[in-house]
Amino acid sequence: MNWYLEVLKKYAVFDGRATRKEYWYFTLFNFLAFFALTMIDSVIGSFNPEVGIGLFGGIYSLAVLTPYLAVSVRRLHDTDRSGWWLLIELIPFIGSIVLLFFMVMDSQTSDNQYGLNPLPGNKGGSDLAIIVVAVIVFVAVIGMLAAIAIPAYQNYVERAKQAEIHQNQPF
Fold first, then answer.
1. Considering 28, 90, 143, 145, which has the largest number of Cβ atoms within 10 A of its Cβ?
2. Residue 68 — very low, low, confident or very high, per pLDDT cuts 50/70/90?
3. CA 116 – CA 139 distance, rounded (Å)
């Protein structure tokens, strides 16, 4: 919870560096909060399956968009990459995989052009827990997208069949 609050305190700070732990705990908490709000939206009836989001989920997403972008840029800085690398996400599927790889990478152990090492004495090495959390979040997001997209597609196909039936009936 502290990592989440620390990122919110740096609401629009795009300079500096963010560790893997800071980024992934913020991402995990966002996922859990968005999932809970989606469930609440479904219960109260404000979830729109065609759009894939509800009232509370939408408001929350807009509220954390800037901090999420800021911590993502700082995370890229920690791997000695420009924040402009976030735009690789615009390339379908491959962009997401490349960005996921960058976010899971270990911090650069020395100071870089974006600031001092946030973990003094960091000697590198892997943090298996962070990698596991990253994979779980990635799989969960894919699962949520599939859970929204498959019924929406089935509904689309059904409406197309109904429209074709009505179009072919004589008047």
1. 28
2. very high
3. 33
CA-to-CA distance for 71 and 46, rounded, in angstroms? 30
Alpha carbons 7 and 65: distance in angstroms, whole number: 12
pTM of the model: 0.68
Q: Does 13 or 127 have the greater pLDDT score? A: 13
Q: What is the DSSP letter of 115?
A: B
**Burial readout 140-150 (b: 16 or more C-beta within 10 A, e: otherwise):** eeeeeeeebee
Three-state SS letters, 31-86: HHHHHHHHHHHHHHCCCECCCCECHHHHHHHHHHHHHHHHHHHHHHHHCCCCHHHH
Residue 124 three-state SS: coil
Q: How confident is the model at residue 71 (pLDDT cuts 50, 70, 90)?
A: very high
Kindly state the tokens that stand for 115: 């600031």
